[in-house]
Amino acid sequence: MPKAKIISVINYKGGVGKTTTTYHIGCSLAQHYHKKVLLVDIDPQNNLTFLCAKDQRWDAFKKERGTLATLYRQYATQNSLNTRRVIWENPIELDNGKRITNLDLIPCDVELLGDELGLDGSSAPFPRQQPSAWAMAAYMRERRFLTEALRQVENDYDYILIDCPPNLYLMTQNALFASHSYLVTTVPDYLSTLGFDILQGRIKDISKRSDAAQTFLGKSYGLTSIAELGGVVFVKVRHSAHGVLPSFKQKMDDIGKKNSGLQFSSYTTELIGYNLAAEQHRPVWECNTPAAQAAADRQEYPNITRIFLERFHFHAQVKKAHHA
């Protein structure tokens, strides 16, 4: 079986639909296209984990099986990784005891301090002056954790989706090295798109440092090339009676032109139904409240998932979505 396509979802800014998009694409891939999906939560805010399950169930799983933090501690202490042990199989519960099959989760840990996963930027800096083999190897090893962890299970899935924290610290860098591509979600307004070019520039800098370190070491240090931008998904797009607000449309057009048409043609609008679905720990199309059903009827995330599959196609032929 071919290896999974691994996609990270990132943005500098919070509140731009990153977790909601990761979650709904994963659910749609599993339910509508019968793909085997692994969600990976690397943000200690734990939002993706809590979209999948109530905190009491997460706490019980954490005590019995562990979380991403368990894996990281194994890696940091140079013990054998056991990725499968911390995979929560089919965590999303529906009515009548049913679950969303084909969708698993590696949960994060809301109680983590940032420095335990290098999430506060405290990882060893790139050794610029008088670099040593030891310092270069340490720099590279810190960024190989997720690559090593996912290597154990990448043949078990069609897609692995990584929900990243709103920064480019150590764990996000791990995600970028473990991934084939990354998606950026953003609201098409001034503040949300302000750091878009900076984000891409920083990722290029990280790639250059990795290349320099591996050249210095004289060998590949277990890392593939850093992920490339695979698409931009616009969220919370506002409409008027005449269509998309002109200011939003202008931002969408500008980003699309700058990024060779990588923007997804489908987007989400600002609907309360998504918040109500989050409270029920299920995708919007599995909720029975009027507001959630109104959001589901727009088929925004199934349409985004269709584009996602066209862009990141797997070995199997894409089946027609139930909600197409």
Description:
- By secondary structure, the chain is an alpha/beta fold.
- Helix content is 41%, strand content 12%.
- The chain contains 13 helices and nine strands.
- The strands form two sheets. Strands 3-4-2-5-1-6-7 form a seven-stranded mixed beta sheet, sandwiched between helices.
- A hairpin with a 2-residue loop joins strand 8 and strand 9.
- Helix 5 packs across helix 9.
- The longest helix has 22 residues.
- It starts with a strand and ends in a 13-residue tail after the last helix.
Q: What is shown here, in short?
A:
Helices cover 41% and strands 12% of the residues.
Cα distance spanning the termini: 28 Å
**Annotation field: number of helices:** 13
- Based on secondary structure, the structural category is alpha/beta
Overall outline = globular
Please tag this protein with its features.
324 residues, alpha/beta, 13 helices, 9 strands, disordered C terminus
Task: Record the SSE blueprint.
Blueprint lengths: L4 E6 L7 H15 L4 E5 L5 H6 L2 H11 L2 H9 L11 E2 L13 E4 L26 H10 L2 H7 L7 E5 L6 H9 L2 E6 L3 H4 L2 H22 L10 E7 L4 E2 L2 E2 L1 H13 L14 H7 L10 H8 L2 H12 L13
Parallel strand pairs: 1-5, 1-6, 2-4, 2-5, 6-7
Antiparallel strand pairs: 3-4, 8-9
